[in-house]
Amino acid sequence: MTEPIYRANVLVCAGTGCASSGSRSTMAALEAEVQRRGLQNEVRVVETGCRGFCAMGPIVIVYPEGIFYCQVKPEDVEELVEETLVKGRVVSRLVYEVPDTQQAVPLYEQIPFYSKQQRITLRNCGVIDPESIDEYIARGGYEALGKVLQEMTPSQVIDEVKASGLRGRGGAGFLTGLKWQFTAQAAGDIKYVVCNADEGDPGAFMDRSILEGDPHSVIEGMMICGYSVGAHEGYIYCRAEYPLAIKRLHLAIEKAHEYGLMGKDIFGSGFDFELIVKEGAGAFVCGEETALIASVEGRRGEPRPRPPFPANQGLWDRPTNVNNVKSYANVAQIIRNGAEWFSKIGTPKSPGTAIFALTGKVQNTGLIEVPMGITLREIIYDIGGGVPDGKQFKAVQTGGPLGGCLPASGLDLQVDFDSLRAAGAVMGSGGMIVVDEDTCMVEFCKYFLTFATAESCGKCVPCRVGGRRMLELLTRISEGQGTMADIEMIEEIARGMDSDSLCALGQLTPGPVLSALRYFRDEFEAHVLEGRCPAKQCVALTSFYIDPAACKGCGICKRACPVQVIEGDRRMIHIINQDGCIKCGTCQEVCPFDSVIKLSGETIEVPTELIPVGSFGK
Amino acid sequence: MVLEQTKTEDRAAFDEGPLEEILDSFSAQEGAVIPILQRAQQAYGYLPEEALRMISKRTGFSLAQLYGVATFYSQFYLQRRGRHVINICDGTACHVKGAPRLVTTLEEELGIKAGETSPDYRVTLEVVYCLGSCALAPMAVIDGQVYGRLVPEKVLKLVRELD
Ligand SMILES: Cc1cc2nc3c(=O)[nH]c(=O)nc-3n(C[C@H](O)[C@H](O)[C@H](O)COP(=O)(O)O)c2cc1C
Ligand code: SF4
Ligand code: SF4
Ligand code: FES
Ligand code: FES
Fold it and tell me: Taking a C-beta distance cutoff of 8 angstroms, is the pair A46, A26 a contact?
């Protein structure tokens, strides 16, 4: 049976984001509607992986035109099919609108969110059906593997990857080709290839999107690596929190076997390769490569000192190459298009693209891929659309709990491994969280530190104890009990953790605090010296007051207060009894006249007894 | 200590059948401890002491080793869990968009702390770190179903609808 030639392709995103906004039912409705109208031989409905613009999901794109529809619900489907697929018109109420100007942008490539992006690692994500190996092959998939096995020697492959300048995308940015060379040169008959898909950064989901949207690209990269280092067995260590990614990986491996692209004597080259998927069990530290290896071996995932590096002594003490998902996903394209092509993208020292999960207080949240060297301002304002609700940008945090933050003055910084590190932030694994004036940097640091200390494996003292002490000091500061000596003590502990911890978790745990102290020291000092939280977030340092000039005496706050500490009567100015208030903020939310205000480090004059509305101060 | 607590309640009911099958399918596979524990937990909903004992006997790993592994990873549970499992994400993106308020709201509603199970085994409330849907922050997963852009009222409604 031959495939019909379709005049239109309707791509429905079924990534995790869109799936949770209901893309499965949209997909089902589309298929049914296409059937009902007898269009199934003209119009093809394809389920794809993540397109990156998850906040607008469910996303539906109609090709060949490239019409981009947002938030498509099953009830929109009939109109979509009628208008676009039958009559060739755009359904304007479903297209993307630029938030500030309300300008409608029907075409995918014109949407500001995509305008500055350059999709290389993610080039198939959201474009192909990830469960179809044929579609991957149609886009040039497994060509690189064929080329490598038939035309190149292992050392030629390594040279090509080295020449491309590809640096590991797992955080540290180590040269991928050089790492392969170490594994290739290591003594031993049995070697392994491992893919790190633990993605522990609590605010990053690019590895997930690649595994869900284009699993074969990772598999092909691992096989090319296997060939070049002399390994015949590979492991993908994937977080168990990513069930769809795991399912797609299993399916992709099965398909690759069916097509003779995996297993024995691939392409008649004599090269054998097998791939095994291992599920992580929920420990952030298992993303560290030696801990990951321990976990694959079935032990507690505790890091061990390096050297020896995994390249020499990894899985079961045999030479093992460990790379991140994105590092592998770039390899096939480097082989196909040549090292030179890759090295010209991005900057000379950080070639290629960077993928970020842009989240937090920006208009457009989602997954983006940009050339290295782009500025943070371009990412946050041009792609992200800036901070919503007219709020002020405060900081951008990269690298997650082991990263750092940058203030507005850092917005013109170029994004690449080296300049971010020099500024005290890091590339990390790709989380990029924007925060506005409502985030307190002390609280934000406390958050990361709470995460990192909970995830410390406890094997070495600086990390286990240092993190705890630092968290206690920060907690004191956030409660208004801190002293300037506490701030100094934090810096001293940080130095100790950095120099004496066994693995990068302990070494980098102080990162967020140190960068916050570097750029937002005044905010810490306000907590200590003035008992004031400028963002009004630290509960101990804030209080709620009813503005006596604005209160209309409606009594709504009084009824809503869960602990009944609001005094008042009809048409009387209401008063909060500060002693009993638990600062839940309910009164502020419910007041229809915005008469409840939140203060930190100051108080206002309020009546001492119930007086009629409008009579205060008269 | 935790092992003690599970004893009285579930011992009589322990059915060896499912674990038997799991152990057979993993025999002689290198480094299979974690997958065995994962499958066992899938079968029983948590890791009862009897299961650990049986795994120990069959694989040769000491009970201490198994216990060490099971307590290291946050995914393993040594105590029976609720019929419904609520995972509230407090990853960074969800955190800055108000996840902590969702947690306190549910703690108050259910009368349990995050990480605990209600005494009637109706719900287990858990805080997790990033489930990869940050663009929909703050989000939660209730019985495997993802819910995005939550506010306290919405999460309360969802939880009250659970039987
Ligand atoms: C605490 C900790 C967590 C880490 N988590 C990850 C992770 O989730 N994914 C990842 O690829 N690398 C992670 N790394 C880095 C790995 O140790 C390792 O450097 C990386 O997998 C190498 O791959 P690359 O060369 O492709 O970057 C982590 C490191 C540390 C110290
Ligand atoms: S630095 Fe922390 S996580 Fe790393 S080995 Fe030491 S205790 Fe474990
Ligand atoms: S903040 Fe909460 S406890 Fe305090 S007065 Fe308002 S409603 Fe009552
Ligand atoms: S999941 Fe659909 S765009 Fe990300
Ligand atoms: S931070 Fe909550 S889903 Fe990523």
Answer: no
Using a CB–CB cutoff of 8 Å, tell me whether A205 touches chain B.
yes
> Is the complex ipTM more than 0.85?
no
What structural domains and CATH numbers belong to chain A?
8-110 (3.40.30.10), 133-343 (3.40.50.11540), 353-436 (3.10.20.600), 441-530 (1.20.1440.230), 539-600 (3.30.70.20)
Q: Which helix (H) or strand (E) holds A431?
A: strand A431-436
Distance in Å, alpha carbon of A564 to nearest chain B alpha carbon: 16
Query: Of how many residues is chain A composed?
Result: 618
Cα distance from N-terminal residue to C-terminal residue, chain A: 89
Q: How buried is residue A561: exposed, middle or buried, by Cβ count under 10 Å (0-12/13-18/19+)?
A: buried
Average pLDDT over residues A448-460: 92
Q: Beta strands of chain B (E only): which ranges?
A: 84-89, 123-128, 140-142, 145-147
Please state, in angstroms and rounded to a whole number, the distance separating the CA atoms of residues A449 and A262.
Answer: 43
Residue with tokens 């120099």: A499
What residues form DSSP beta bridges with A370? A354
- Chain B residues with CB under 8 Å of A318 CB are none
pLDDT per residue as tens digits for the range B38-57: 999 989 989 999 999 999 99
- Tell me if A203 and B91 make a contact (CB, 8 A cut-off): yes
CA dist., res. A245 & res. A239, Å (int): 9
What is the A23 CA–ligand 4 centroid distance (Å)? 9
> CA angle A446-A576-A593, nearest 5°?
90
- Given an 8 Å threshold on Cβ–Cβ distance, is A17 in contact with B136? yes
Give whole-number Cα distances, A139 to A127, A136, A330, A451, A603, in Å: 10, 5, 14, 41, 65
Q: Please report where in the chains the tokens 């794109």 appear, as a residue.
A: A61
Q: Are strands A366-371 and A353-360 parallel, antiparallel or unpaired?
A: antiparallel
Report all structural domains of chain B as residue ranges with CATH numbers, in order of start: 14-72 (1.10.10), 84-160 (3.40.30.10)
Residue closest to A362 by CA, chosen among B97, B31, B19:
B97
Q: Which two tokens stand for residue A461?
A: 């003292």
* pLDDT tens per residue, range A20-31: 888 999 999 999
Which residue's entry shows tokens 């009084």?
A: A558
Spell A485-522 as b/e; 16+ CB within 10 A means b: ebbeebeebbebbbeebbbbbbbbbbbbbbbbbebbee
Chain A stretch 65-124, residues whose beta carbon is closer than 8 A to a beta carbon of chain B: none
Question: Which tokens is A466 given?
Answer: 């240092």
CA A15 – CA A129 distance, rounded (Å):
11
What type of residue is A606? V
**pLDDT tens track for A337-388:** 999 999 999 999 999 999 999 999 999 999 999 999 999 999 999 999 999 9
A384, exposed or middle or buried, with CB in 10 Å at 0-12, 13-18, 19+?
buried
Residue B30: pLDDT band (50, 70, 90) is low
H/E element, A182: helix A176-185
- Size (chain B), residues: 163
